[in-house]
Known about the structure:
Elements lengths: L2 H9 L10 H10 L8 E5 L11 H12 L5 E6 L3 E2 L2 E4 L15 H4 L9 H10 L5 E4 L6 H10 L7 E3 L2 E2 L4 H8 L10 E7 L17 H15 L3 H5 L6 H6 L7 H7 L9 E3 L3 E2 L3 E2 L2 E4 L9
Parallel strand pairs: 1-8, 2-6, 2-8, 3-7, 4-5
Antiparallel strand pairs: 1-12, 9-12, 10-11
Helix pairs in contact: 2-5, 3-6, 7-11
Amino acid sequence: MERKDFIRLLGLGALSSIAMDTRSITSELLSMPDSEEMPILFVGHGNPMNAIEDNVYSKMWKKLGTKLPTPKAILVVSAHWETKGTQVLVSEKPRTIHDFGGFPRKLFEQQYPAPGAPAFAKETAKLMLPTKVAEDLTWGLDHGTWSVLLPMYPEAKIPVYQLSLDYTQGAAYHYKIASQLSKLRKKGVLIVGSGNVVHNLGRVQWGKQGGYDWAVEFDTKVKNYIDTENHQALVDYTKIGNSANLSIPSNEHYLPLLYVLANRKKGEKPLYFNDTLEMGSISMRSVIFGAKDLKLDK
C-alpha cells in the first residue's frame, strides 16, 4: 500500500478495512514524514448546552474549525474521563456519551459519529513508555469532547480519540507524561485539552454575570503564569493559595490545561479566546499555542 493511499483511508476512518496488524500501522505512522507542526488547544467547555446553543462560545468554536489547519486526527484529554491508570481509546467507531442529566431532550439526541483513530491511539501509548497505557474499546466521546467538536467540525469526518486522566496521580505526573506527546504535533494530530481553569459547581450562581473575586483572582494568575511561561507554578497550583482551593475543589477540569502546556514549545505565544467567567465560579478561558498568524476577532 502506498503512503498516500494509507493516509486517504485513515482520513476516512476506514482502518478496519486495512489488512495489516497494529504494529505495521504504527510503524507506518512513525515513518511518515513530519508535517507542519499543529497548534495545541485548551478549551473551557462549560455547560454542555454550548454544543447546540448559538452563543459566543459556540460561535468561536465554529470559527476555529474554519481557521485552524485541518488535522489528520484529534486527541482530546477531557475532564470527563477519569480512570485508575492511564487509558487510551482505540475504538474504530467511538460512541457518543451523554454523561449528564437534567438537560433538554434535544441535547441527548445529539450524536457525533466521528471515526476513531486506533493507529494514532496505539502510537500515543507507545510514545508514553515506560508509562503503561491501557487500550480501551468501551468508552467513547464524552461531552468534554463532542460538545466542542460538534460546532468546530460538524461533519464529524476527522478521526477522534481520547486519553484518560489517571485520578490516582497528581499534577506533576500528568504534566510529565503529557510532555511525551509533542511528536504528535508533527504527525498532524491536534491535541486538545477540554476542561475549565475555574470549575466549582458548588459555588455556581445561576444568572450571575462574571466571576467571584476569588475566581477572577485565580483566573488572572493562571493567565499571568501562562504569559511568563511559568509552567511550574501552574503544576504547583495548590501553592497559589485560597483562590486556587476555591477554584479547583477537584482537579479533573484543571488537569487538561497541563496536557496542553506540556506540549508548548518554548517561546510560543498564547492566543486567548472566550476569556470570560460566568455564574460566579466557571472560567471559560481558552488558549491556543502555535497557530501562526491566526486572528480571532471577538
